[in-house]
Amino acid sequence: MSIKLIKASYEYQDLIVDMLKEWIDYNNNHPEANTSPASIFKNDYHNFDYYINNLDLKNPKPGLVEDSTFFALDVERNKMVGAINIRHKLNDYLLNYGGHIGDGVRPSERKKGYATKIIGLALKECQKLNIDKALLVCDKDNIGSAKSIKNNGAILENEIVKDGKLIQRYWIEIK
Predict the structure, then answer these.
(1) What pLDDT does 175 receive?
(2) Which residues of the chain register pLDDT less than 50?
(3) CB neighbours (10 Å) of residue 104?
(4) pLDDT in tens, 85-102
(5) From its phi and psi, is residue 63 left (phi > 0), alpha (psi between -120 and 50) or beta?
(6) Beta-carbon contacts of residue 47 (< 8 Å; ≥ 6 apart)
(7) Within 13 Å of residue 89, how many CA atoms lie on the same side as its CB?
């Protein structure tokens, strides 16, 4: 499995759009679906120029933080398999409920080990941003997400309740 993180560009437009169509269709038919990373769903990909130019939050409004979005390309299969969003710092909300990294794997590629690999690559990007310790969170009932976080050396700090759901908060030391 050879995965690399890429920034959205016209070079990868067809692969990104193919993934987004599948993912959006899945989410529409599964209202309980996790929509992480939310950054890839916030804009309409039909206007791809606007889409790629507004993925990253470069000048955040008050209450938000700067972030970067990457797509995960399976190089051997030439297929986009997921995406990650890295928040450059934590505000109060992210410290409790969001973390530094939001990640997701397209529905047809789940349970194949991609999430573990994508998080590992995201941690390297965090290192470039001088993030020494990354926070990742997931719903307690999202066993796959918890497993991929733990596979990257995460330590569970605690569990908190948000909107009736138990949220697990994990920290990963970045070396």
Answers:
(1) 77
(2) none
(3) 26
(4) 999 999 999 999 999 999
(5) left
(6) none
(7) 8
Whole-model pTM: value is 0.94
The torsion defined by the Cα of 64, 66, 17 and 142, in degrees rounded to 10, comes to -60
Residue 1: the pLDDT is 79
Report the DSSP pairing between strands 79-87 and 155-162. unpaired
Structure confidence by residue, pLDDT tens digits, 157-171: 999 999 899 999 999
Q: Which residues pair with 125 in a beta bridge?
A: none
Helices 143-150 and 114-128: crossing angle, nearest 10°? 50
Q: Which residues pair with 72 in a beta bridge?
A: 5, 82
Alpha carbon of 91 to those of 25, 36, 64, 75, 139: distances in Å?
32, 18, 7, 35, 19
